[in-house]
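Case study B.
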Amino acid sequence: MTLLRVRNLRVSFATGDGTVNAVNGVDLDVEAGQSLAVVGESGSGKSQLMLAVMGLLARNGTAAGSVELESVELLGLDERELNRIRSRRIAMVFQDPMTALNPYLRVADQMTEGLVLHLGMARREALAESVRLLDAMEVPDARRQIAMYPHEFSGGMRQRVLIAMALSCRPRLLIADEPTTALDVTVQSRIMRILAEARAELGTAVVLVTHDVGIVAGGCEHMVVLYGGQVMESGPVDRVFAAPYHPYTEGLLNAVPRLDRDDSRLPSIPGDPPDMNRPPAGCPFAARCPRAVDRCRHELPGLLSRAPDRRVACHLPLDGPA
Amino acid sequence: MTLLFGRRMFREPLPPGTGDAPAGRSLWHDARARFVRNRAAVASLVVLLLVTLFALFGDFVAAWSNEEIDWSMLGSVAENGAPSLANGHWFGVDELGRDLFARTVQGTRISLMVGIVGALISVVVGTLYGATAGYFGGRLDGVMMRVVDVLMAIPYMFVLILFMVVFGRSILMLFIGIGLVSWLDMARIARGQTLNIKHREFVEAAVAIGVRPRRIILRHIVPNLLGVVIVYATLLVPSMIIYESFISFLGLGVQEPDTSWGALINDGASQMQYGTLWQLLFPLFFFVVTLFSLFFLGDGLRDALDPNDR
Amino acid sequence: MSEPLLRVRDLSVTFPVRGREGWPWARPRPLRAVRDVSFDLAAGESLGIVGESGSGKTTLARALIGTVPAAAGEARWQGEDLLRMPPAARHRHRRDIQMVFQDPLAALDPRMTAGEIIAEPLLVHEPRLARREVRARVAQMMERVGLLPNQVNRYPHEFSGGQCQRINIARALVVRPRLVVCDEPVSALDVSVQAQVINLLGDLGRDLGLALIFIAHDLAVVKHICDRILVFYLGRAMELGAARDVVREPRHPYTRALVAAAPIPDPAIERGRRTAVLEGDLPSPLAPPSGCVFRTRCPIARPSCAAAIPPMQDFGGGHLAACPHTGQAGHGEAPG
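Model:
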C-alpha cells in the first residue's frame, strides 16, 4: 500500500517582491517501509516540499494539491489533527541538530515529553523507553547521558538524540532533511547506518532529503531528483545511477568528485540554479542543459514513464528521443 | 579621501567594447523600497518636513515678529488674545502680548536644533568611538568603555543643571551639555554591533588582504553599522528634545527672549488658570506631533534597515 | 632541494580560553588548536589539508595568513620567518599570500559593489596605481574568473553563491599572489556549482603558477585538486604524502577511517563496501588524549600509544604517517 501519496503539490510564498513558487506540481509516492531519496540543490524546493507534507510551512507559505497519508488527506487539516498525525505517524529530523533541541531542558525531559503526550506512558516508563532508544542509537552510557543538556552533546550525538526522539512514537514515515550535512564524514556514515537499521527493525519508511548523491548511493532504494521545484527524474537508485535519463541527473552524478576516480577535470554543469523569483518559462534546467533545443525553453516537459518504475521530465532524454 | 575615491571609481564608463555596467541594487536601495511601503513612516516623514519648513520659513509668513508686543492686547490677553485670523495672531498671543505663532516658530527652531545637534554629535562621536573600541578590543576597549561607564554613572541632568547655574543659561551651554552625554549610549551600541561585525568573514578577509585598521573601521565597519545607528539616532532626537524641554520647563533652559517648546509649554501651563488654553495647546501640539512622527519614523527605519529581513 | 616557497616547522597555535568560573584575572587555560605541524610547499604546488571540524585546519590557515598569532614554530616564506617579521615587512608579504573563505557571501562586504571589493587589495598594495589601471585590472580579473565585466557595479546579494565565490577568488588573485590559501572554498556551494569552482581553482593555479593550500573536510575534493595531502586530527598532522598515495594506500588508521567513510556515488560499489565506522567522538581540544591524540578512537590502539607522541615515519616517496603500529597492509580498504 502506498503510505504517502503526494499529487500535484504546489508551494508558494508571498514575499515583499511578489509570489515565489518554490514547488511546482510535484508527485511523490512512498511505499510502506521504503527508503526514498529526494535529491536536489539549494532552491530545488526539496525542503519546502517536505515542510508542506508536514504542514510546517512558514506563515507566508501556502500549499495546494494533495498530500495523502494512508489515504487521509493532510492538506487542510486543522492544527490539532495535524499535531496528532505528526510524530505519531510522520516524524521529521532536521539539518541542524542544535536548534531542534531546547537548550534549557534536559535531553530526558525532551525525549519523554512525546512518549507521555502521544502514547500515554507514565514518566518512569517513558524514561526507560528513552534510554532504550538511545542505546539503540549507539549513544554510549545512555542512562547517564540522558540527564545532560543538549549543549553537552557533540553534533553527531545530538542528531542521534533527535532521530531517537523522532522514532520514539514508532512513526510510519520518517522525513530526514539533510540529517548529515552539518556532520563530519566519519559521523555521517554512522548516522546513515542507524537510519538503515531503524528502517529494517521498525518498518518505518524513510524519506532522505539531501544534496549529496554520495549518501544516496549507499542508503536508499528509490530516488527523486528535484530541480527548480519540479521532479526531473525518479526511479530505483541502482538504475538511475547506472543510466540516468535526465541530463541534469547525469550532470549531477558526474560533478561529484570521487575518491575512486582520477579525472583531472570534473565534468561540471555550467551556470547557476534558477532564481525562483523569476522562474524560466520552459524546462527549469534548459538554461544549463547541454542538449537543450528551442522547445525546451518554451515548453515544460511532462513527467512521463519511460521504463517500469522510472519516470523522466525531458523532451530529449538520454536513452533516445521522447 | 579613499572613501570617496573608491565609491566613485566604477561609476565611470567601462573600457570600450564591454558594454555598460548597470548599477546594482544596494542594500540602501532595498531599504528605501521597504521604507516607502510603510505608510505611517512616510506620513511621519512628511509631517517632519512640514514642521521643519514651519521652523525655517514661518518667520516670513508671520504677521508679527516674535519680539514685538501687541500693546493693544496687553492686559486683556484672556479676552482678546485668542487665535484670530483677523488681527494676524493666528495662534493667539502670550501673556505679554507677543504673537504666539512667531514664538512657536522660534521655539520649534531651537528645539529641533537641540535634537539634531545632539543626534549628530552622538552619531559622529559615538559611532567612531564605539567602532574603534570594539574593533581593537582588548585593553584599549576596556579603557575606552570604562570612560563611558564613568560618564554614564554621573547623574547628568544634575550636571547639566549645575552647568546652567554656574556658566549662565545660554543655548551654547545647552548644546555643550547635551553633546557631552548624548554619545554615550551610541558608543555602547556601536561597540556592541562592531563586536558582531568584526567577526564576520568580510572583515577577516580585509585583514588578510592587508587593509589597515583605520580603513577597515571607516570602510567596512562603519557602513555596516549605519543601519542601527540611524535608527537609534532617530530615537535619540526626541529624547534630546524632551531633555531640553524638561530643563526649560524647570526654567533653567533657554533664556528670554529665546524660547523653545519646553519653555513655551511651561509658560502656557502657568497661564492655564486664566483660561488662555491656546498658549499651552499650540506649542504642545507641535511637540507631540513631532515626537510621534520621530517615533514612527524610527520604527519605519528599523523595519526597513533590519538586516534580518535579508 | 632548493628552498621551498613556504617551509613550516613545528608550528603551534594556542588560544587562551577563559572559563565562566573563576575571577576575570584568573589565568586562562590554553587551547592548543594546532600543535607541531611541519610541511614544505614548493612554488606552484598544491597542498590539501583534510580534517574534521574542530581539527584545527582552519586555525592553521589563519596562522599562515596572519590573522591569528602563532605560539611557536616557524613559517619561512622564501627563507624569511613570517611569524617573527616586523609589521611593515609582514604587511608587504600579505600581498603574496591571499585567502579564499568558506562562506562566499559572508566574506564580501554587503555594502560594497563587486568592483570595489575586487579593487580593494589593489588600492592597499599598489596605492599609486592610476584609477584607469585599477579598473582595467579589475575587469580583466573578473573575466578571468568567469564574471561578466558589466556586473562590476552589482552588490554581493545580487549574485549566486557560485558567483560570490568567483568574486572572492578574483579578489584574492588581483594582486598576483604566489600562494592562495583556500578555506573550504566549495563546501557551502551546490554540487553542480562545486565542480565549476574546483575546476576554476585548478586552472588558475596551473596557469598562474600559484601555490595552493586547499583546506577541506572532503577527501575527494582535496584529492581532485591537490598534489599532496596533509591529514589533520585534533591539531596534529597524522599523515602527509602525495594525494594518490594517501588515498590509495593510507598509512594512518585515521586516514583509513576517512577514506572508508567517504561515500562513493555508485550504488554498486557503495553496497559492497563494509565501512569501518570510528567509535566515539572527537575529544575536547582542551583536554586532548596523552600520547597519540587519535588513540581513543583508533581500532588498532595499544596501551603504548598513550605513552608517547608518535613521530612522523617515512614510508617512502615522502609519504609520512604518525603511527608506529600501522602495518604495510591496510586495515581499512581503499576503494576502487
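DSSP finds ten helices and twelve strands in chain C. The remaining cases will be described in the next quarterly update.
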